[in-house]
Write a structure and sequence with these properties.
Number of helices: 9
Order of helices and strands: EHEEHEEHEHEHEHEEEHEHEH
Number of domains: 1
Strand content: 15-25%
Largest sheet: 9 strands, mixed
Shape: globular
Number of strands: 13
CATH class: Alpha Beta
Radius of gyration: 18 Å
CATH topology: TIM Barrel
Distance between the termini: 15 Å
Length: 255
């Protein structure tokens, strides 16, 4: 059973299935082609990442550089959009602007990881300009960065915890006095970190008592998916979108 919804972004019956980078297992992560495949498979929640180019364009891309994933090279932050737009993921697919994704997939809700500080203001400006407050949840490993986003945008912006917020919630679940930020609507966490379990009954119970959903990343094996769903998590992020869909179908919770 999911925890009560605190923000329209989370208004979804049953556990939320997130396509991590659109379904990174297919090798075309964070591309329009891969996002389209996820949507055609029935996904309505997609996780992505954003960086800003040297001239302030907000692109959906995980790495700080183009080198690993594309036929281009260089730090995105040092390159103008006119150069980044010519890079091809896996030699075939262009790097998209995040604004393009909002337009191309109007029914999708986006979970957006702000990879660097310069993404904060362009992302909030884009969400405001397009009226996408109910379609975007903003996260970051930096709790300070996501807290600043929340402070600037107020309760209309859905946010998850950064690393420090997750740690505070984990400590609280162990009975250690800690005060995680109350403005978040979700704790988005790995199943474990450095060999230490993060997601267990105590963590989920503590999160739910604070009105938070728990979304776990990045889970690709069906047995792990079943175990986490049995624990009561509210969402799973996966690279293997067909696997997660089948697990939820088998449980009667695919929507």
């Amino acid at each position: 059973m999911t925890t009560p919804v605190r923000h329209p972004y989370l208004d979804h019956p049953g556990p939320i299935a997130f396509a991590h980078r659109g379904g990174a297992a297919d090798g075309l992560e964070n591309t329009v082609a891969q996002f389209r495949r996820a949507v055609e498979a029935g996904y309505r929640y997609i996780e992505t990442d954003v960086h800003t180019t040297a001239d302030g364009q907000l692109v959906a891309f995980h790495d700080a550089t183009l080198d690993r994933l594309t036929d281009g090279a260089g730090r995105i932050a040092d390159l103008p959009w006119k150069d980044v737009r010519h890079a091809r993921v896996a030699g075939s697919e262009p790097v998209p602007l995040f604004e393009e994704l909002l337009e191309e997939f109007p029914e999708v809700r986006w979970n957006v990881d702000m990879k660097a500080e310069p993404t904060l203001h362009p992302l909030l400006d884009l969400i405001a300009r397009t009226g996408s407050w109910d379609r975007v949840c903003v996260g970051s490993f930096s709790e300070a960065r996501v807290a600043r986003a929340q402070l600037l945008a107020g309760p209309r912006l859905a946010t998850s915890y950064g690393t420090r917020g997750v740690l505070a919630l984990r400590l609280r679940s162990w009975g250690v006095p800690a005060a995680p930020r109350r403005s978040a609507v979700a704790a988005q966490v790995p199943e474990s970190q450095s060999g230490v379990p993060v997601v267990d009954h105590r963590f989920i119970r503590t999160a739910h008592a604070r009105g938070l959903q728990v979304h776990v990343w990045t889970v690709n094996e069906p047995q792990r998916m079943h175990r986490l769903l049995d624990l009561g998590v509210d969402g799973i992020m996966t690279d293997h979108i067909d696997t997660l869909r089948k697990v939820l179908e088998d449980r009667g919770t695919w929507v």
